[in-house]
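assembly run, all chains below
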Amino acid sequence: TAARNDLSVLTVPAFKDNYLWLIHDGVHAAVVDPGDAAPILAALATHGLTLTAILLTHHHADHIGGVPALLNRFKVPVFGPRSDGIDAVTVALDEGDTVTVPGLDLALDVLEVPGHTLGHIAYVRRTPGLHWLFCGDTLFAGGCGRLFEGTPAQMAASLEKLAALPEDTEVYCAHEYTLSNLRFALAVEPGNEALALRMRDESAKRAAELPTVPSSIGLERRTNPFLRYREPEVMESLTAAGRLAGGATPVQAFAALREWKNVF
Ligand code: ZN
Ligand code: FE
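ok done. output:
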């Protein structure tokens, strides 16, 4: 039998630009947002892992589509949001819950982060020195999810919650949208040096066909316009683009930023 190791996270690409996350200790594994079962079954086989849990962030098909096929192979609990309309969920979660992940030495705290969908949740590992965030389609590297169900105020509050996590928190979001997000970010903050540096780094990774995810909360705070809508340069760019009137509130700035990105 294989020896159990420290926890690590495997990146499992799926579809055009999704990342499915497989948390494992060399023996057991928990999957986050298995939109497709085939690449997860392949990764489990390659690494000799047994699936012990499924964790879901929200109801969209590219995040839950593989659940039935995985349950056919593995009788495991399905953790997910209480109120996002996912029938497959067997352990319904609310803000402040802690998931003790079966088979792994892993506890994940639950944050409610409405906006992309109304019931969207995120999972946080708070082990000292090992901070992880699985945030689905809420916070992206350099951007944020579209507002399909929630209001700008809800999404802004959700992102603030995530931005308040420790700087060294690794951000495991569900899509590789980084370069497109950073092109928009540079239009919004042309004077942000950390952002220009990041664009160089992430472009090099993509040229080498490497993922830009995970990111970190510190890097997002320094470069992600959807965490920086209170910055004077962001407000000035919104105004110059004709997208914001004088005297606007921060939430109005956030909403204008999200609308601008939709058509950028
Ligand atoms: Zn989604
Ligand atoms: Fe998605």
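The two ends are 53 Å apart (CA to CA).

The longest helix spans residues 193-207.

not gonna interpret more than that til we talk
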